[in-house]
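Form P-L/3: holo structure prediction, ligand pyridoxal-5'-phosphate.
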Amino acid sequence: MEATAKFNENAIFTEEMKARVPSWPPVYPEIAEQLKEVYLKGKWSFNGEAEQAFSKEFADLHTAEHGIFMANGTVTLECALAALGVGHGDEVIVPALTWMATAMAVRYLGAIPVFVDIEPYTLCLDPDKIEQAITSKTKAIIPVHIYGSMADMEKIMAIAKKRGLAVIEDCAHAHGGVWAGKGVGSVGDVGSFSFQESKSLSSGEGGICLTNDSDLAEKLFRLKHIGYNAGSGQGKAASGPAEGLLCHNYRGTEFQAVVLSGSVKRLKEQTKLRDKNAGIIREILADAPGVEVQARGRLANLQGYYALTLIIDPDKLNGVSLDAFQDALSKEGLSAGKTYGPVYDHMLWNVSKDEYRKEDCAVADDICANRALCFAQNWLLVDEESAKAIGKAIKKVAFSFA
Ligand SMILES: *Cc1c(COP(=O)(O)O)cnc(C)c1O
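OUTPUT (holo model):
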């Protein structure tokens, strides 16, 4: 109401456009009705109908055979690693830039995360730097499809095959994406997704593992369901888990599954809209000095987005600092935040230095400190006029420093 004065009259991205950026998470009234039904039914957990239906729907959408629903997108990673036999002292390659859960999951199993640098344009794990980080202890690679790009699964799968390593795709930022004709998360041995509130498909908390391997699916189900096999009722386990497979209660609830089933119906359309608007902004910035949008995955057909990430080149912008560029964007009504930063520098990362390894990660260090700013994915759910205005306003800021 009182904000009118703050917006400069010449703002390309107007206050009215800003008010139209949809808030996140979205609220769909019919889901509230379905939640009430589930509540009144009194069947809230233990692989209920809604969980089974959503798991199948989500797996189908990503061209995977099996979907195993869990409590969040950290335990999905932990269970994926455990199902693939990763344990104490093994090494797992992870990108320097990701949410720290990717590396924490490795530590939970007593294994050693090995941080490898990222590509400067996609910001995903750099395939050319993986092989030099592999030792006799390496068991797995976790590429992360970060923000608005996809890791190069073709190159990573080739390395994994050659070196006998497992691959877990961390798809917490990539819901709905398609890589070379396959759903994201169905290319590696296991795909892990999070449905935490900020993610582009959300139920507050939640996660799922996708796989095409029925043995892995069986293990994953037992791992999250305290050892129960799929399909057995409470107190009626038909068989136990293999000796030594330490199983947890990492179950989600029917409430989460109902929210997700209602929301996933919109995911396809939303993913297309985000991808289209990112394309509009990318095109407008094509002739802007010193700023570009994070590159799409090399073989991405449809790109999932958790954020629209700008990469600036301070050398072409009179040495502008990231803070100054961020400030200038905000004066144009554009709210962009910094990346997570490299995991090993994160405030919450308290793993001791002898419990992880770090390769030279100069690209990640530079990009996070000096060059990358992220708009949350709901900024890509705007109309075409607003998307164009966002692109033009960013361009105006770039010219002001050039
Ligand atoms: C959100 C996220 C996770 C973890 O998911 P939670 O559901 O929050 O536990 C894992 N990896 C990445 C890249 C994420 O962004």
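COMMENT: Residues 29-264 form a domain with the Aspartate Aminotransferase; domain 2 fold (CATH 3.40.640.10).
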